[in-house]
From TrEMBL:
Name of this chain's protein: UbiE/COQ5 methyltransferase
Molecular functions per Gene Ontology: S-adenosylmethionine-dependent methyltransferase activity
Keywords: Methyltransferase, Transferase
Gene source species: Methanomassiliicoccus intestinalis (strain Issoire-Mx1)
Entries under Gene3D superfamilies matching the protein: Vaccinia Virus protein VP39
Length: 248
């Protein structure tokens, strides 16, 4: 994976970590995310892989429900934060340093794959999706969250200003570093010019996934109050779920 991506997330690790740690500590928000992923995965007690785990928020949410979690990230600073967060919450998660485009796991090893706000940052999303397919057991499910960060029609000047105010009220230090925005070193990413989630669906189909479903505006059910104003009022946060079919 491009080193500029790792450098970007290494730089963002402190402010992003504080954002997700706060989210995990808010019971209503944590339980809303857990319900969302439970509905998407359909089953409990699965061996799951979290790709692009960042500070570990999704892995922690799912480990808290009893899932067996393995997590991987390209940023060593994000991984260090994730290890600390898991330990602070007494959650057992198997963390690995690795590239989402070349996952360090065997074929058909996991009973589910999850990912959270990661695919937009990778240089070659089709490779990542192909890797998801490879490590997933047949009949099992992928559930990932992302957003349309560039061309969403909700990104009016007024809403962006109100959102920035919400970021400041929720986390003043994060306000000065931005939210999930496209920084200068990421301008060449595929997601800048993509039609999302339409392009995601095409890549998922090409990789071999079936039963592909999209749930739009999930932020309306998981974020509340100031945090919804800050992080959920200007973009469509969507979840895509799909199944790796059994071979005939």
């Amino acid at each position: 994976m491009n080193m500029s991506i790792r450098n970007h997330w290494d730089t963002e690790s402190v402010t992003y970590d504080s954002f997700v740690v706060k989210g995990f500590s808010i019971k209503k928000e944590r339980e809303a995310w857990q319900t969302l992923f439970l509905d998407a995965l359909k089953s409990k007690n699965l061996r799951l892989l979290d790709v692009g785990c960042g500070p570990g928020i999704v892995s922690m949410q799912l480990a808290d429900l009893g899932y067996s979690m393995t997590a991987v990230d390209f940023s060593e600073k994000m991984l260090a934060a994730a290890v600390k967060n898991a330990a602070d919450n007494n959650l057992k998660i198997d963390f690995h340093h690795g590239d989402a485009e070349n996952l360090p796991f065997e074929d058909e090893f996991f009973e589910g794959v999850v990912s959270d706000y990661m695919l937009w940052t990778v240089p070659h999303p089709e490779k990542v999706i192909s890797e998801w397919f490879r490590v997933l057991k047949p009949g099992c499910r992928i559930a990932y969250v992302d957003g349309n960060w560039v061309s969403d029609p909700k990104m009016t000047r007024l809403k962006v200003c109100l959102s920035n105010l919400g970021v400041f009220l929720d986390s003043p230090s994060r306000c000065f570093h931005g939210k999930c925005e496209v920084s200068a070193d990421l301008q060449t990413l595929w997601s800048v010019n993509a039609s999302r989630p339409a392009d995601d669906i095409k890549m998922m189909e090409k990789a071999g996934f079936t039963d592909i479903c999209v749930r739009h505006n999930i932020q309306d059910s998981v974020l509340h109050g100031i945090r919804h104003l800050a992080y959920g009022s200007t973009n469509d946060h969507f979840m895509i779920t799909a199944v790796k079919p059994h071979t005939s």
